[in-house]
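Structure in, sequence out. Go:
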């Protein structure tokens, strides 16, 4: 979907004429001062496209008609977005910050053979859990003191989200996120609580407000990494009504660069180190420029 298609979808869904929308946007934010129906029509026909700043403010303006962070999200064909990522990879999203993406040449990989599956849908999740645990311990330099059985309970909890990337049925990447209640989430982000103390009581139910805590990520190729991140954001968008925010504790300095690029900001620093927790509320997670670039194909020309 081009952003112009999204504009037209929102306008018609919310019963606005082009003149109505121009006036609404003019009143909503100064960035739209000077906008007229001629320019709006060119946007809707994808002759030109609003820049990223205008895209975000347009989405925010539409929130008054749809009590979600990303109104009319159901109109976006996310399968088509995934198809586009097969061709483009994640380069425009995370740039050179690819510490957690192994350097496998993309031209030897058949991208269409990469599949993303939730762990809960696997017949035998144990091999993937063992790989995830080994990687997690390696990234944390064995300082986490998290027994395998504890890690496994986290992964298998109904509120957890664990996506596996496979390539011809071989492990090719993963993304694990825990859904936590506010109190333990805040304690983790403020460094009052250690990860190894997370218990079943700390998890939020799927139908109650919770906070996402991404725990570990790995992609063997740019395409696999891109699809894992996009699948995670698809989940966040669908769960936005009862998800208050996202936060994590990158285990390496490069990881902090990655989560910052994806909308999270440094929060609390670890004393005498360059590590820190990172967090963001849902608008900053779902409407950051990198995600908008992934979702909408049109280049930003005006």
């Amino acid at each position: 979907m081009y952003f112009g298609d999204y504009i037209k979808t929102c306008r018609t869904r919310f019963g606005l004429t082009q003149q109505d929308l121009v006036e609404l946007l003019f009143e909503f934010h100064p960035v739209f001062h000077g906008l007229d129906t001629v320019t709006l029509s060119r946007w809707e026909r994808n002759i030109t496209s609003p820049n990223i700043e205008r895209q975000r403010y347009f989405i925010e303006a539409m929130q008054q008609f749809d009590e979600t962070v990303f109104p009319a999200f159901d109109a976006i064909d996310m399968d088509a977005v995934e198809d586009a990522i097969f061709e483009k990879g994640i380069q425009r999203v995370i740039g050179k910050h690819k510490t957690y993406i192994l350097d496998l040449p993309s031209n030897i990989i058949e991208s269409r053979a990469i599949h993303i599956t939730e762990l809960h849908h696997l017949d035998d999740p144990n091999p993937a859990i063992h790989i995830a645990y080994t990687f997690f311990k390696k990234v944390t330099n064995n300082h986490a003191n998290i027994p395998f059985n504890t890690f496994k309970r986290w992964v298998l909890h109904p509120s957890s989200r664990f996506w596996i990337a496979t390539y011809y049925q071989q492990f090719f990447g993963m993304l694990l996120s825990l859904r936590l209640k506010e109190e333990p989430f805040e304690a983790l982000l403020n460094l009052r609580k250690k990860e190894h103390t997370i218990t079943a009581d700390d998890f939020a139910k799927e139908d109650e407000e919770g906070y996402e805590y991404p725990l570990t990520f790995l992609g063997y190729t740019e395409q696999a990494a891109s699809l894992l991140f996009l699948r995670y954001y698809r989940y966040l968008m669908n769960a936005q009504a009862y998800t208050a925010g996202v936060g994590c504790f990158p285990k390496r300095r490069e990881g902090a660069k990655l989560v910052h690029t994806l909308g999270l900001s440094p929060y609390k620093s670890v004393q005498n180190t360059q590590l820190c927790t990172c967090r963001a509320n849902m608008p900053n997670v779902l409407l950051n420029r990198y995600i908008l670039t992934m979702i909408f194909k049109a280049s930003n020309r005006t």
